[in-house]
Design brief:
With 620 residues, the protein is α+β, with helices and mostly antiparallel strands. It contains 30 helices and 10 strands. The protein has helices at 31-44, 53-56, 65-70, 84-92, 100-107, 111-124, 126-137, 147-169, 172-176, 184-195, 199-202, 213-231, 236-253, 261-278, 280-304, 308-311, 316-322, 328-333, 338-354, 363-383, 389-396, 403-409, 412-415, 429-453, 460-469, 527-535, 544-554, 558-561, 589-593, 612-619, and strands at residues 23-26, 49-52, 73-76, 80-83, 488-496, 503-504, 506-507, 564-566, 576-586, 598-611.
Amino acid sequence: MPPAAGAPPGPQTEAASGTPRPVLIYDGDCAFCAYWARYWQQLTGDRVSYRVYQEAAAEYPEIPLSDFQRAVQYLAPGRRRASAAEASFLTLSHAPGKAQWLWLYRRLPGFAWVAERAYAFIAAHRTASFRISRLLWGAQYAPPRYELVSFLFLRGFGLIYLAAFLSFAVQAQGLIGSHGIQPLTELTDAAAANLGRGRFWQMPMVFWWSSSDQALRLVCWGGVAGSLLLACNVLPRLVLPLLYLLYLSLLYAGQTFMTYQWDTFLLETGFLAIVLSLATLPGIWLLRWLLFRFMFMSGVVKLLSGDPNWWNLSALSYHFLTQPLPTPLAWYAARLPAGTLTFATGAVFVVELVLPFLIFSPRRPRFVAGVGILLLEACILITGNYNWFNLQTMLLCLPLFDDAALRRVLPPRLLAHVPPGTAQPRRSRTQRLLIGGVVSLLVLCSCTEMDMRFGGRPPALAQSIDRFFEPFHIVSSYGLFAIMTTKRDEIVIEGSADGIEWREYEFRYKPGDLARAPPWNIPHQPRLDWQMWFAALDDPRTLPWFWRFLQRLLENEPTVTALLLKNPFPERPPRYLRAGFFEYDFSDDAAKARGRWWQRRWLGLYFPIVSLKDHDKQSQ
């Protein structure tokens, strides 16, 4: 039971400021009443006085004892009285950010009736309600705080940004530099001619001022510097919008090489991080909403695709082999018993379709969701190279916890370096309206994206608003591994000086040499290697970037060959190139014991023999 708050008893009890304050009187013998009265007292502070009726009833002879025993009583200055659900909402109206419950009680038709019936039911089952409360919220539930969560999330997100910018920086010149596979200058020239002034809204990026190699370096390495500042908590409110703008610019500049879900996922999280830095609680809820959409949509698209491998729970029997860039542990995971892989596939659906709904549940079930998602992401992390993607998803689990939970598990040495949490200053009405408008916009656009992703037809106005803000990628639709590939085809590029002897080009991360173990590259994103995986699923005649890639190899362009592990023509470029098509598979136990990780079977030519002269004719 919480101690009685305030000085002399009675409805005219005064706060420290001398202003009369209301009194909430509850049953001191009811564990459920004491549990929630203690919680409310921490919410309202000294704006409400809390007393037990066993001590205060004699001071209110006009109130029957049975009323005190039946329900809580709220007495405002002047002895105006309310009880039960209405008293609860009146009490909460004195807590910051909780007045909406009283507004709903008084304004929303039917809400008061439902609330009073729910209160009566709980009051009739107080013992069970107390046990459920302890189970869902913990023995000593206190109003959750998120200053530590917010601080750690923004520092961790600085490291995610760092991985993304640094990864692209070391590849940028070979991918989109002036001598790269898809030169940025060609994009800006074509867009300026076709879009005119509309390009500034349809493709918002800083490269409209300059698309030179120097500008590309400045954006990439400026992002690296800004990420370090964010990770070190230096001017986060200034750095976050800058990082968002720089990465948005790279998204458009990267063209084919920036078409992945994790790039838009990073941008949406980056925009929400800006909100979090300005308003903690709205930012926390928006991040939870993003995690819910990401996980739930990933599960739904697997079912909507109709892929039989997901429906019959055999998908993981293929996944570890056929994913773009497996890790060394994928070889072992692929050899797990069929029953284990079937069970694991079912567990994926539980995590993606069931646990996301616990994100909006009380404290302890929400923790269960966080732990379950973390376990799934950890399993993906150790068996597949998905750059910073899984790390970012794991970071998004952080807002599912609160400061009290983190302080129980984090090392004291780490907590010693965290600045003490301070409540954010009360915002003006204009600030609240602005934040509320941004939150409403994000929820509207994200619901519209979800509806369209699932085949729905949202209202025309909602679609128009969503399209208007679409170029900024503040929301996106998600859905991973909707279709499971069942075999692994690989493109092997070979060069020759005479058309007789052929030498293989070796990529840094994708399978090639049969004796080379699948490398680790987390959190790096090797974009050319990834594009080669997708190219194996396509007709090369539909891939202009692949033609340009071959041209750069025929020219021995150093910024492009630097993207490879081995260039078999370091001194003079080859006269001819060809691309072979192979089906790759993990080796068996015996071959693995001899140091061979892969085995392959020739399928034919993916791309016929070509020379620089042939390429020039094709370009013309």
